[in-house]
Amino acid sequence: MKLFSAKQLKEADQATEKNEGITSIDLMERAAGQAFEWIDAQLKGQQVPIYIFCGIGNNGGDGLALGRLLLNKKYDVHSFVVNYSENRSKCFLINYDRYKNTSKEWPKLLKSVDDFPDIPANALVVDAIFGIGLNRPLDQWVKQLVIHINQSKTFTIAIDVPSGMFVDSATPDLEAVIEASVTLTFQAPKLPFFLPETARFSNSIQVLNIGLDGNYLAETPTKAKLITKPDVQKMYQPRDKFSHKGTFGHALIVGGSYGKMGAVTLAVKACLRAGAGKTTTYIPESGYTILQTAVPEAMVIAAQESKHLVDFSVSNEYEAIAIGVGLGTDVKTMKGFKKFLETNKTQLVLDADALNLLAQDKELLKLLPKNCVLTPHPGELERLVGKWKNDFDKLKKTVSLSKSIDGVVVIKGAYTITVYHDQYYINSTGNPGMATAGSGDVLTGIITGLIVQGYDVLTAAVFGVYLHGSTGDLAAQQTGYNSLIAGDLIDFLGDGFIHLFRSDNVPQETAGNNRKNSN
Ligand SMILES: NC(=O)C1=CN([C@@H]2O[C@H](COP(=O)(O)OP(=O)(O)OC[C@H]3O[C@@H](n4cnc5c(N)ncnc54)[C@H](OP(=O)(O)O)[C@@H]3O)[C@@H](O)[C@H]2O)[C@@H](O)CC1
Ligand SMILES: Nc1ncnc2c1ncn2[C@@H]1O[C@H](COP(=O)(O)OP(=O)(O)O)[C@@H](O)[C@H]1O
Ligand SMILES: [K+]
């Protein structure tokens, strides 16, 4: 799903008006109508005081149109115009008049802190103060209004965007943003809904299709995409009946150190479960028995050194090498790692301590082969690119890194973002249960397993991240968040694949039948 910029949405707006022969006021009525339908479907006529705060631009126009529709359906509506500027939009003014013709109680004008209404605890608040047109920090008194609404702790519905949130750049003041309970966003979600600093404001996101011009939406490329099930279904490569293990490649996992062999165990199991034809691990000698016992399906090459890898001389028979899990950052390991990079020609996935070694000597980045995959969590990323000022700056720095190595960088976390040059692929699966030691090692194994089967590196990263998260979601249904451990992600990976092609909305009857059959 494409995430459009504010400028693109305004262009889509104009394309729709031109191609459908409608005006912006018609489009506003459509948007407000969709918001009304959604709210009416939840309330079903239930009478609660509805407090609508409207700005003076088109977001405010949406708010007034919504207010009129709710009044027509006999809801208890109280509207306020937040008069932060005299520069009112045309569509706002039209809806202001329409509202006044509908209601005896006209919208109250708010011009300063003294005008703020008390908000009853049982009120439903609608935030239509600012939308995608916000382009500078809020005036002090408008910020106070946002704080006043947030402090009311009432259920708050943001129209299009929580007011105060910037769409295409960093939000300058995180105290001046509406904390929405639900965000009714038009046509497509906005990038900051998925970034760590701002995601908490938009909460439950409902995308309302207001029918913007289909051609414009299809043909306009976006920097950011939200990766959902239909996107990854297209990525899956079915297996041929006459395929054999040689068809699906040979992966090498290089890593482990004394006390950290588990990381390699998790990565190699995940790699196998992702579908690699063959896997080999290259580990310090002390891990030999551990690996052979824990993963009989994997081959093991034990290095001479007992506790840390020093010599990384590996053959070139592998389709991909994952390096770094449990590796450690011993001085001798660093030397061997450098020597390895100087001669290696195989596709690489670099994680954990391999990233820390790269951060210790950034010159090593120049030795990476084209199209490698780096999978840093935010701490590892910071060591590689330096401190960032905000989420947008983090993305900019990651884009520079991706371009400089001509490879893929996966920023792990909630809504993992895979960055390739200046494209962002935002993952929609996963849960806080996955914040547990070793779950990153599993991801490394999955991505490597996909690469050796023939997925290109970008697809392997985007698809692998999605699968890892959806597997975590399936596992959590059985384990709950607290009890999920990294090994569960391996156990459920098969379910993750199977669910790729299962409908999410299993009808009750079918679910019942399944239960009956399994009894
Ligand atoms: N295709 C679509 O997407 C559709 C969009 N629709 C709706 O329109 C919304 C966008 O409306 P919008 O462009 O009028 O901007 P909005 O957010 O109401 O802001 C109002 C104005 O405030 C100003 N301003 C900015 N910052 C400020 C500040 N800090 N303090 C004071 N003033 C500030 C700035 O004007 P300026 O002063 O810069 O000239 C800005 O223009 C969109 O979110 C959606 O709800 C739907 O109706 C139909 C389909
Ligand atoms: N709150 C969360 N929501 C979704 N995914 C998460 C969350 N927390 C962690 N994860 C995922 O779990 C993995 C953790 O990786 P990492 O920090 O490298 O763990 P480790 O080094 O212990 O293996 C990443 O893929 C990350 O995206
Ligand atoms: K809003």
Automatic annotation (TrEMBL):
Its EC number is 4.2.1.136, 5.1.99.6. Residues 228-500 form the YjeF C-terminal domain. Signal peptide: none annotated. PROSITE patterns: YJEF_C_2, YJEF_C_3, YJEF_N. SUPFAM superfamilies: Ribokinase-like, YjeF N-terminal domain-like. It catalyses: (6S)-NADHX + ADP = AMP + phosphate + NADH + H(+); (6R)-NADPHX = (6S)-NADPHX; (6S)-NADPHX + ADP = AMP + phosphate + NADPH + H(+); (6R)-NADHX = (6S)-NADHX. Keywords: ATP-binding, Isomerase, Lyase, Metal-binding, Multifunctional enzyme, NAD, NADP, Nucleotide-binding, Potassium. Residues 9-218 form the YjeF N-terminal domain. One of its GO terms (biological process) is nicotinamide nucleotide metabolic process. The keyword Acyltransferase does not apply. Binds 1 potassium ion per subunit. InterPro entries: Carbohydrate_kinase_pred_CS, CARKD, Nnr, Ribokinase-like, YjeF_N_dom, YjeF_N_dom_sf. (6S)-NADPHX binds at residues 58-62, 131-137, 160, 263, 326, 377, 441. The keyword Nucleotide-binding applies. GO terms for molecular function: ADP-dependent NAD(P)H-hydrate dehydratase activity; ATP binding; metal ion binding; NAD(P)HX epimerase activity. Its cofactor is K(+); Mg(2+). AMP binds at residues 412-416, 440. Homotetramer. Catalyzes the epimerization of the S- and R-forms of NAD(P)HX, a damaged form of NAD(P)H that is a result of enzymatic or heat-dependent hydration. This is a prerequisite for the S-specific NAD(P)H-hydrate dehydratase to allow the repair of both epimers of NAD(P)HX. Bifunctional enzyme that catalyzes the epimerization of the S- and R-forms of NAD(P)HX and the dehydration of the S-form of NAD(P)HX at the expense of ADP, which is converted to AMP. This allows the repair of both epimers of NAD(P)HX, a damaged form of NAD(P)H that is a result of enzymatic or heat-dependent hydration. In the N-terminal section; belongs to the NnrE/AIBP family. Belongs to the NnrE/AIBP family. This is Bifunctional NAD(P)H-hydrate repair enzyme. It comes from Planktosalinus lacus. The lineage of its organism: Bacteria, Pseudomonadati, Bacteroidota, Flavobacteriia, Flavobacteriales. The gene is nnrE.
